Amino acid sequence: MQNKYTTYILNEQKLDNYNLLLNETLFHNANGYIGVRSVFEEGYPDGFESIRGQYINGFYDFSQMKQAENLYGLTQEKQTMLNIADTQSIILHLEDEKFSMFEGKVLDSIRWVDMEKGVTGRYVQWRSPKGKEIELTIIRMTSFHQLTLFTTSYEVKPLNFSGEITIESSHDGNVLNYTDCNDPRVADDGIRYLTPISCEIKKGASYITSKTTKSNCTITSCVKNILLQDHERQFTIDNNNAICQMTTEANLGGTIKLIKYAVFCDSIRYEDCREQAGVELEKALSTSLESLYKKQEDYLSVYWNNCDVKIEGDDELSRAMHYNLYQLIQSVGKDEHSNIAPKGLSGEGYEGHYFWDTEMYIEPFFTVTNPSITKNLINYRFSILEMAKENARILGHSKGALYPWRTIMGKECSGYFPAGSAQYHINGDIAYSIIAYYLATKDLSLLKEKGGEIIFETARLWMDTGNFHNDIFYINDITGPDEYTCIVNNNYYTNVIAQYHLNWAVKVYDLLKNTEIFDELVNKIDLKFEEIEDFHAAADAMYLAYDSKLKINPQDDSFLQKRRLDLQKIPKDKFPLLLYYHPLHLYRHQVCKQPDTIMAHFIIEDVQSLETMRNSYDYYEEITTHDSSLSDCIFGIMAAKLGMEEKSFDYFCHSAKLDLKDKHKNTKHGIHTANMGGNYMAIVYGFGGFRLKEEGIFFAPILPVKWVSYQFKISYEDSRIIIIVKEDICCFRLEHGSAKTIHVYDKIYHLKDMLIINRRYNKEERS
């Protein structure tokens, strides 16, 4: 896929602390297993802040979570994603001068992310204080082919001198996690989680093995430096920092090239991570760097061929969209030991925990483009199902499973339960994602092996959380997606997704009852037919709040009784509100952090009329702060459905550029992966009107007035369909697979090859 929009270039680099931290995030490297923030290899001068982080997805330690009052069941301990050994440092000496962006004169400086090749680059032309000039080109890659591998290619070209050059490449095991006591979204404990237990040099490579303080996990990082010119080499170990010093002669116009290989292996995935690190290093060294680059490009070629979105008519938005989709494949875990965190592997915001973001914002992208990745994410949820059962018991439920609101290894990490553990909708979200995967793939094997068990165990929770009263099923004392309104009765989102979940639990029971695993499954979890009948009865009797005067769905039973918070009177520097107002103050007002009822109308749209959805949209838009990065994309999708095309486009633009423009002013802590998934949905589910339902796949495309056209692809069952939307027509082409029935503008078509529909008159024309 040759596309000029798949390279993001920064030509002007500001060396202030704000921009340095922002670019550490924007130019990070990751592959779903390892993540490396993009600090300067040579570091920054004293006085500059840096989040110099390298991370492993799913690798964690425990830390104490102090509760003011130690009430029963409150979380006392949390997990934290760890900053592992630092392998980035490369110090360059030109005889007696040291290269630094902050000394001498920077003549040219460029950074880029190449989303086709899967690398980041940095080019610097620099003049030293004594007049020596060099070109420096650095290419970094976290390999999709070999997930344990991170490579750095470091080239130095003298432009006006010959002489001695010394390169010091270090591998430092003395690392700490980043802390920020002023932001509740970042850890503030400053604990040393990881302690080196060995640091050694073997066969020209350094190995550092470290152990966590409490979780009993170990990790080995291994580094080998290969300088392609004749040189003298010296190793030193200084307090678990292995330094390789290489000295060579540089010739005017010649190039000095260092290739630095770093591999990482953890004990969660490998029985002996020290031994495996040696195996992984040999594997990396057994092929050329050029071959590794080619494998990286091949992997991404397949990825883009599955999911590419093309926009004609807006170069900036097209590049932003590609950047967002690239970050999703960089961030998502590739095995059952990991998932995808709100910041991916780009930073330490939210401590690397996994939330509902995965199921409701990110899986909708992978489910219809790379469903095998969604399957991995569901496998992760199955791997922690037993802990979800334990979590349910802690919260007083005698049977069933309740997934933690935020976690890494399966235990709840939410210290503030009103806005965390009380969000029982997490069960419905996970069930929803499994159902969507089944609808898109018809993969019954996943339901038989894992998905069905998750759906049944989580459905049991609704029967205990809710109850019948006067033949109506209510769910009280829970929190919906909107964290500015907590511990409420009959949150609309929660009730409607519970209804959907319970209905599908009955359908999954029927799907599985004639399969070979049915008896084994029902015996394993002691599932009674009477429970299935109860699921059906609760779904039929589910209370869904509706206000006949306003003709909207109230967010919960008490929401409309509260005073409105006048957002126009709040100073702009007091947002996000969670940092400046006591939670109780927010809870007592009609104010929303993010879409709640609007989100429900998007994912389960057939329950309400268009009139109700439109009235609700207008009502909640006025009182939503969009303090959450999860917000804009959903409002944009629903605006498209409701015919508010200009508004939909405005929301999309804000969502697309959220990180590249740092619109929330916290991208330094990491990218916003859920927003990136939502940005894809804004095009496909918003402008494209795509819906995945039991009856099939549905489309209702619109074209933003500023665009010439756009196109996207959908994988459905055994087929892949390309959708192209232009001013007058929309074209559906079956790229491969069997013919499919599709719904377009509420009409049914049989797609065998190509279908062209006149958007203006909605008439079918066949090519």
TrEMBL record:
The keyword Glycosyltransferase applies. Substrate binds at residues 356-357, 593-594. One of its GO terms (molecular function) is glycosyltransferase activity. SUPFAM superfamilies: Galactose mutarotase-like, Six-hairpin glycosidases. The keyword Cytoplasm does not apply. Residues 323-680 form the Glycoside hydrolase family 65 central catalytic domain. Belongs to the glycosyl hydrolase 65 family. This is Family 65 glycosyl hydrolase. It comes from Alkalibaculum sporogenes.
